[in-house]
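Incident log, structure service

09:12 report received: a user says their structure output differs between two submissions of the same chain.
09:20 pulled the input from the user's history:
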Amino acid sequence: MRRRAIKYIESSPDEISQALGLSPVAYVPMGALEWHGPHNALGLDGIKAEAICERIAAITGGVVFPAVYWGAYDTLKGFPFTFSFPARHLKKITCSMLKQLHEMGFKVVVIISGHYPPSQISFLKRISKKYSRRFNDFFVLGIPEFMPVMDMGYIGDHAASWETSMMMAIKPETVRLEKLPASLDFSQRAKMHGTFGKDPRVHANKDDGEMIMGAISARVASAVHETLEKGSFEPFDAIYKQADDYMRKFYRLSGLREFLKLNGIDKLSQALDYLFWTCLKGQKQQQ
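09:34 re-ran on a clean worker, output below:
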């Protein structure tokens, strides 16, 4: 059964109370203010995360909160108009937010992060489990948007084919592929334009964006419904376990080849060239 979803910033107190009675689920998108190539909007992460939250909430009902942009950490260095903050700021905000959402009567909180450095993925997983243990009637899922669909070939990228495809589906007017030079290899795209993943000029399209957001929405909505029905963290924990299992296969040689392919790396030399450049750049910044 589809239940009505509402946006917090457009709702009255009575409407929030009614939504809590129907489906006590809060959706919190997280983004960043960060360079996403010359061809994408600087607010891509939050725009994407909020659109996905709205799609999930359309299935489950609940309240969609505005995207959290300020406070993002481990953002892309060396590119214009990118903001970065100490990790402790966003961590404090997240903990305080979860405590207050519980006090307001929400039973489930889903945090979808469109910005996902490894440090933030780890933090969201840790804090979700912590708060889900703290209260008997409260369950938190904090994930990057790609985590439920890694088996579909999306393991996250930055301003590359997947993110650009989603923006083509959400806000096509913000995508300007002609601004990204053609025929660049992975290392060139990464070093020159901060684009990590498959070449969006070749692989990005609206249909893939719609498809992957539909899959994310359906899988997370299913987990939310199951969590509410069972009163258990198990459906959310299953998402984390499946992602961990999927990542383990990349530790094998055959998995490494697949990892390179999924990231648009045609040759191992391209990845090594980028890593070598990154190390040298880091050394220069410290001098």
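09:41 both user submissions now match this output. Likely a transient worker issue. Closing.
09:42 reviewer note: The chain has eleven helices and five strands. Residues 283-287 have pLDDT under 50 and may be disordered.
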